[in-house]
Amino acid sequence: MAATGSAVGLGNVWKFPYVAGENGGGAFVLIYLLCIAVVGLPILIGEIMLGRHGASNPFSAMIKSARESDASKLWAGTAILGIVAGLIIMSFYSLVAGWVLDYTVAMANGQFTGADAAVVDNYFNNVLLADQKLQLAWHSVFTLITVAVLAGGVIKGLGNSIKIMMPLLFVLLLVSFFYSLNQGDFARGVHFMFDADFSKINAETVLIAMGQAFFTLSLGMSAMMAYGSYMPKSASIARTAIVICILDTGIALLAGLTIFPIVFAHGIEPSQGPGLMFLSMPLAFGNMPGGGIFGTLFFVLIAIAAWSSAISLVEPAVAWLSENTRLNRPISAAMVGSIVWAGGTACIYIDGIFDKFEFIASNILLPLGGLLIAIFCGWVMKRKIAKRELGDLSFNQFNLWYATTRVFTPLGVIAVLLFSTGIVKFDHNESLDLIESPANIEAPVTEASVPPTLAAPSAATSAETEPASQPQPTQ
């Protein structure tokens, strides 16, 4: 259950809708689902398997598996890459979680009761984002709560709390969904999410879809290795991974079907960016009977979901420090917490850091880490070790996972990374054009060449090439 809590968090309810909105809707959603099935699930199985086999922190687990497979200990660098990615993500993740805490209080105080789109937009842009000290306070509170839990051990009480939190979050999403169905522009929302316009898709869009799959499943950041180390031998890794993927994807789609009809009904642009959830959900709760109570509880549960995911982001670093140095767990947690607090503070006060952290971690480091895990599981780790850990799979099921992890998953990740970075590109005749040196690449200055998370959205979309200090919806 703790692993499920890691996967289900802000990535589903906050990030998936706005990333889908920025990247064309239906076609992006389809590619995202393909990435979950072909790339995400095989790597998730492999990462949990490595963690359970190692029964230690991700770094030590990789060393153990490499040693038993007669491979270089340098493969432990995969875990280090994941730990670094997790800390970078936590830097901006804790900032967004702080926004959630602020909205929890605002909903409880009736801030959005009967509010229209202008009131909600003003609160997000001119009250919250305009007040750096307020953001710093909430960011600090969230980081402190996360560090306090990590100092006492990740397992204690987390699984039981998630067993209660997950169903409640799902119920409140359903309440919001039915409001959206009745009061929102539901037909347009469904059309936006599921009618695929592939003219809006390019290599970078595929990279972002794959990065979202990695982000929302907590892949490539060593988190699932850490949770795998706690998994009993009697548990089925494959079944656990499938359940995580189904729950994770289901909640993401439900969030999209809840948010986009509200967005269209109130004339909000779906490409508003990271503020999309904070503009749409207060409108829904603020205008429904009992919305103050439902809205407060919704943001409380989103905060808890964010907290459980934040633990998974930081746990690998804390576990490595406490198990490989003389530092005890509380001191290790405090040190790591100080690092992510500093990173989050930089996101508040330094222009563009939020967007750069998000793009580099989600779309470069996580896919790269997942690629290394797939290569290790498919080509380096002895087959008999994998077969033993996945013993509940039939002969054909194991071979399907093994072939996918060995061939299709790595090729897919490599292809997307090569095309999206411009190392390999299609010319106008659709023939492959190899670039000898990435340094010689001169990307055309177009909307498509600007990472969506690095562009500030505007009503006319003409400002998409101007960097934003913090991601903000158009005022």
What report would you give on this structure?
With 475 residues, this protein is an all-alpha fold. It has one domain (2-454): Up-down Bundle (Amino acid/polyamine transporter I), CATH 1.20.1740. The protein has 18 helices and two strands. It has helices at residues 2-7, 10-22, 26-54, 58-68, 77-108, 117-128, 132-152, 158-183, 186-194, 203-217, 223-228, 237-265, 276-286, 291-324, 329-349, 353-380, 383-389, 395-421, and strands at 424-426, 432-434. A two-stranded antiparallel ribbon has the order 1-2. A hairpin with a 5-residue loop joins β1 (424-426) and β2. α12 packs across α13. The radius of gyration is 22 Å and the shape is globular. This is Transporter. GO terms for molecular function: symporter activity. It is found in: Membrane. It holds the Pfam family SNF. One of its GO terms (cellular component) is membrane.
Q: Which short descriptors sum up this protein?
A:
mainly alpha, Amino acid/polyamine transporter I, two-stranded antiparallel sheet, 71% helix, 1% strand, disordered C terminus, globular, 475 residues
Give the biggest sheet.
Answer: 2 strands, antiparallel
CATH topology, anyone? Amino acid/polyamine transporter I
What would the average pLDDT be, to the nearest integer? Answer: 85
User: What is the 3D shape?
Assistant: globular
Walk across the major sheet and give the strand order. Answer: 1-2
Q: What is the number of domains? A: 1
The portion of residues forming beta strands comes to under 5%
Q: Percent helix among the residues?
A: over 70%
Structural class of the helices, strands and pairings?
A: mainly alpha
Q: What is the CATH-assigned architecture?
A: Up-down Bundle
Give me the Rg, rounded: 22 Å
**Tally of contiguous helical segments:** 18
SSE order, as H and E?
A: HHHHHHHHHHHHHHHHHHEE
Note poorly predicted spans: 427-469, 471-475
First-residue to last-residue Cα separation: 40 Å
CATH top-level class: Mainly Alpha
Number of strands: 2
